[in-house]
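Putative adhesin
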Amino acid sequence: MQTFDTPRPISATVDITFGSIRFVAGDRSDTVVEVRPVDPSWELDVKAAEQTGIDFANGKLVVKQPKLRNLWTTKYGAVEVLVELPTGSDVRGDTANGGYLVEGSVGSCQLKTPTGDIRVEQATGARLRTTAGKITVDRVSGQADVSGNGGIRLRQVDGGAVVKNIGGDIWVGEVAGDLRVSSANGGITVDVARAAVDARTASGDIRVGELGSGAVDLYTPTGEVEVGVPRGTAARLDAHTSAGRVHNRLEASEPTDRTVKVRARSHGGDIIVRPA
């Protein structure tokens, strides 16, 4: 374990081969780094922990292992990395196999892994990548760029968001900026969208609970589309389904300056437009 004086937020980068990475941000004036073998009785894990370098200079922390020439034929152990650092610090992570847990409030958050789950409590901006794992985020106060292959859940995004999923459902609780979301195989649910929405899935339902302003474009070849329009908002509806039905449950509204344009397409499912 190593400790560094850090009275201000820092930039922390963790680059390991195999293992899990955990960042814990809190009200503190130091940074603590701990690298442990996943299995203390396994020689390869112990050696991997010993070979992990920890460097800190000019507000930048780097935790890094030597790069392997051939990742798939070289035997290498796994480690657990814990970094406790000041609130608002920027964090970056890269691992060939392992998950992430980010606790507390961090600044910019950039994490990627081919295999592993990603869990983030709060960040000012997020760029998250996993090709085999779930992604869960409580809040991003700025922009979010998320790509995964499993369930993706974003509770709150105060800026805009781009969300891509190879396989699995996507849920967005509330997004303030423009949202672009796509899934190759899974449903898409957005509880509240304050701005423009472009949502597309190759297989699954699309549901937007409440629209704000801006254009909305929704497409699914096989599933159902459901959209909620706030009362007092006029909807310009362009909806078409090949085999299903279009259900417009909106009541005639009084003249208003608030309008939303909804374009919805489905080949095999119904399209429902209702009051939010």
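thats it. The longest strand covers residues 11-26. Helices lie at 43-50. bye
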